[in-house]
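Section 3.1: Structural characterization of target chains.
Under the original work plan, the team committed to producing a structural model for every single-chain target entering the pipeline before any wet-lab resources were allocated. The record below documents one such target. The sequence was received from the expression subgroup and is listed exactly as submitted; it comprises 158 residues.
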Amino acid sequence: MGYKVCCAAPVYATKASYTATVSVSDGVKTTTQDITVTITAVVNVAPVLSNITNCSKANENTLKVCDLSATDADNDTLTFTIDGDDASLLSVVDNTILKFNTNPDYESPADENNNNEYLITLNVSDGKLTTSSSLKLQVSNVEENQFGEGQFGTSVME
């Protein structure tokens, strides 16, 4: 009695199919059958970041930057991460929101270059492939409510 064992996982790019003849005997009669095993290419498609421009601007004194969005043709579970020069100043919350760890202050920038341009790389991974996009997140100045501002010395809400 003999049999073949494939000792390594087949690779589609190397060989797309394997053929063999299988024989079975009861000692009196023998039956044979040719079989073909076809190898199917498994292609994982990288996830795609969506609405990335929504993450390029933020107002001072506001923690939330944007909602994170991506799609994956394979319907794999996606995970967002950030890195880059100013990544330590931001976080991904619940795998859905990009936010500052502390409110950004236009008058006292905390980014590495002290110019209110926070340089990060936004990554989305399906566990096998990762898609990345470099972002320059610009913090905008917002008129702050201070007693005495506005017309006739009243507070201005913006």
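The chain has no helices and eleven strands.
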